[in-house]
Amino acid sequence: MADQTLLLERTARWRGTSGPDGWADAWERALTELTPYAQLGGEEGDYLPKRWTEGAAGLALAYYLLAADSDTPVAEVLADDVRALATADPDTRSTQPVVARIDGLVERAGHRLDDVSDPVAACWLDLREDCSPTAYGVYDDMALATGPWRWGHDKAASLAFVLEHTAAASSR
Known about the structure:
The protein is mostly helical. It contains eight helices and no strands. It has one domain. The longest helix has 24 residues, at 47-70. The mean pLDDT is 79.
């Protein structure tokens, strides 16, 4: 079980200090649902704490975007809708369809994908980052074979990770 203060601290970079209507509600719901389950032990950069904090950001973003898209309160967003949004390609396990769906929701909610001053867009820009080593100019076979690399839009997969490990997957 995580301390909500620690989860708040580790997700601060995604939350921002303000945001549109519903953004704070989305964060409140996501953190409330995840706090009993989040495994944040170890250093912030370790695998599990990283997955949980990215997943919390993804869940808050999903709640906000789905509420905005359906013009409903954040509290009424259904878990089935979040799961559908977070589902990777069943054959390839690629998160590219997830990225495309969320890109569309971000734009439909009136946010520009290139606006880093907008907390919603900034959150999504970070979560949709291509984590592949080649995106950072790493092509060395030995480095690729030995490094603990993340591939593609791996941060976006953290939403599915938290849904698998929490009651958020079955709430509402």
